[in-house]
Every structure is written in structure tokens, then in C-alpha cells.
């Protein structure tokens, strides 16, 4: 049976200290690209993302939006180059939130340098223009949100991840009301390591300054893309590469479940490769799909084991040749 390879890129909330460190010391291609990207950021912002990610300095500073935005992109792009070096290329790619910018660079929609500057500027503008907020992943059917005034009056649903899992964003001052409601009803939730309310009206104040930045930069996109590309925030509108596209991908609600289904070919063996730092998209796919010909793979994880995960992927691809 033929195979359909899908690369998936995640966004904010998937980061953690030392992400990709085991791969950095084990895989020369990953190390090369991490160093190359970091050298560019040193010239551009005057500091090393690498030092914040892997050094002692990062213990205090690595969770700021600017640094996590850049670090997630660096790790995802560098892992992709490892797969390319081994002759593994996708038939399609799926981007989620910030991961859509990584996907656009990988897919030659925009140049690498333009993408890196856009990511930095987006984080910088949101930090300056928007109030801090909270995001929670809730382990329950999204109908809970619509039936609970404590949730729908105080937060916005920003993502349907899979059955019995959705994500909300809310202002910091609503934290007590929402936490008390969830605890009182014994509903399991996971706080995300995100300081701003992505995919909600809580970042609307950043739209105008970001659009002005894009207009000044005169960003152009290449129509000769390499792979099919699917957007989790613009499920049916990816061909609309207007000036607002790179804002919409972090502002519009996420529909990962329906997006990744578009990338599936039921007549093929589908190998879904999560290139994000935490493997959260591969985990979601395990809940979304229950079919033998759909195989989610994780590379990076907070628990390490990247080389082992790569070996498993290589063996699977060798079997499918």
C-alpha cells in the first residue's frame, strides 16, 4: 500500500526548558540548524535564544513570549531539516497556531529570514499591545463550555482538539471563578504555559500594529509551494494569502480535528509526524483516529528519547517502501 506522509507543527504551549537538547547532542544536522538560526537571532535581537533555551540564564527568562515564539520555531525547523537530510519529505503539512508560520517557511511560502522576523515581531507586538491572559486545556466534551455560564461568560473557547478535550482562554482576573468551577465539578484541566490569550479577542489589540508592520515589510509569498498545506485556523481558506493571513492563524479559533482529517488519504498508509516540541498533536491524533492505516509519530518529548523515536519512524518508513 502507498504511503501518505503528513508533517504537523504545533504552537504556543508546547514549549519547555531544554526541548530538543538530547537531539542537539546526538544529531549533527539538528545541531547545525539550531546554531545557524540562533546566530541570526543574535544579530537581529541582540541575544541568544539558544542560551535561554539550554543555558542557566533560561531558568528565569525562557518563558517570555518573544523567546518561546522563537525557540519553538527553531526547534521545529531544525527537526524538519533532520528528516529532509534522511530523505523524508511530506505529501502535506498541517500547521497549528505559531506552527503555521513554521509550516509556511518549510513549504517555501515565505523566505526563512522573513518568517523569523515575522515571528519575532508578532511576539513583540502582542507583548506590547495585549494584556496577559490564561489558557487551559479541559478534559471534557466542549458542550460543557456552552452549558456552563462560569465558562461562557468568563472565557472563550479557542480550540476543539478532539472528543472530550477543548481549550479556553480568559483574562487573568477571571482565573479564580474558572478554577473554582472546574474544581467544584471535579473536571480535569491542564494549564498551558502561555501568557496571552491566543485565538481569542484577548489579543485583538495586536492586530492593527501587526498589520502595519507587515505592510511596511511588504511581505510576499511564493505561490510555487512544495507541499499541500492545511491551516487549523483557516480550514477552508488557506488559499487566501492576504496581508491578514499571518494574523488570522494566531487569532482565529483552532479546528485541528477537521483540519488533520483533510490531510488523510484513506487509500494509503498515513504516517502523521509531529515535529512540535511536545508531541501533543500526535497524541491528539491517537484520540481522533482509530484506524490501522493511520499512524501518529512523535519525535520530541519532555521525557527525551528523540533518537529512539526517530529510529522507530525510520523503520516504519522502510517497511512501507
Explain what the structure shows:
It is a single chain. This protein has a five-stranded parallel beta sheet, with helices on both faces. Strands 4-5-3-6 form a four-stranded antiparallel beta sheet. It has 15 helices and nine strands. A hairpin with a 2-residue loop joins strand 4 (156-162) and strand 5 (165-171). The model has no long low-confidence stretch (mean pLDDT 89). The longest helix is centred in the N-terminal third of the chain and has 21 residues, at 65-85. The protein folds into two domains: 3-130 and 201-319, Malonyl-Coenzyme A Acyl Carrier Protein, domain 2; 139-191, no CATH class. The chain has helices at 21-24, 28-45, 49-54, 58-61, 65-85, 99-106, 112-129, 143-147, 149-152, 175-184, 207-217, 245-251, 256-262, 280-288, 306-319; strands at 3-9, 92-95, 133-138, 156-162, 165-171, 189-191, 228-231, 269-274, 294-298. It has 321 residues and is an alpha/beta fold. This is Bacillaene synthase trans-acting acyltransferase. It holds the Pfam family Acyl_transf_1.
Amino acid at each position: 500500500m502507498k504511503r501518505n506522509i503528513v508533517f504537523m507543527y504545533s504552537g504556543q504551549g508546547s514549549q519547555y526548558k531544554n526541548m530538543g537538547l538530547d537531539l542537539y547532542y546526538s544529531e549533527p544536522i539538528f545541531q547545525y540548524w539550531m546554531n545557524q538560526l540562533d546566530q541570526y537571532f543574535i544579530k537581529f535581537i541582540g541575544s541568544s535564544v539558544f542560551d535561554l533555551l539550554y543555558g542557566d540564564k533560561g531558568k528565569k527568562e525562557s518563558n517570555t513570549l518573544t523567546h518561546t515564539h522563537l525557540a519553538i520555531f527553531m526547534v521545529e525547523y531544525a527537526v524538519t531539516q533532520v528528516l529532509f537530510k534522511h530523505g523524508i519529505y511530506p505529501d502535506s503539512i498541517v500547521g497549528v497556531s505559531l506552527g503555521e508560520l513554521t509550516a509556511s517557511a518549510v513549504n517555501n511560502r515565505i523566505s526563512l529570514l522573513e518568517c523569523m522576523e515575522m515571528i519575532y515581531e508578532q511576539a513583540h507586538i502582542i507583548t506590547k499591545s495585549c494584556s496577559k491572559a490564561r489558557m487551559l486545556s479541559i478534559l471534557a466534551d466542549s458542550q460543557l463550555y456552552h452549558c456552563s455560564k462560569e465558562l461562557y461568560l468568563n472565557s472563550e473557547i479557542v480550540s476543539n482538539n478532539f472528543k472530550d478535550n477543548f481549550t479556553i482562554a480568559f483574562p487573568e482576573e477571571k482565573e479564580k471563578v474558572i478554577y473554582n468551577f472546574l474544581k467544584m465539578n471535579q473536571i480535569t484541566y491542564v494549564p498551558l504555559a502561555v501568557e496571552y490569550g491566543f485565538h481569542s479577542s484577548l489579543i485583538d489589540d495586536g492586530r492593527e500594529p501587526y498589520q502595519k508592520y507587515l505592510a511596511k515589510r511588504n511581505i510576499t509569498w511564493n505561490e510555487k509551494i512544495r507541499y499541500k498545506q492545511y491551516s487549523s485556523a483557516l480550514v477552508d481558506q488557506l488559499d487566501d494569502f492576504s496581508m491578514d493571513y499571518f494574523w488570522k492563524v494566531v487569532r482565529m479559533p483552532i479546528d485541528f480535528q477537521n483540519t488533520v482529517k483533510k490531510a488523510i488519504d484513506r487509500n494509503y498508509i498515513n504516517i502523521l509526524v509531529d515535529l512540535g516540541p511536545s508531541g501533543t498533536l500526535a497524541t491528539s491524533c491517537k484520540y481522533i483516529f482509530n484506524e490501522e492505516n493511520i499512524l501518529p509519530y512523535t519525535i520530541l518529548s519532555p521525557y527525551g528519547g528523540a533518537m529512539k523515536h526517530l529510529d522507530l519512524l525510520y523503520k516504519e518508513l522502510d517497511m512501507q517502501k
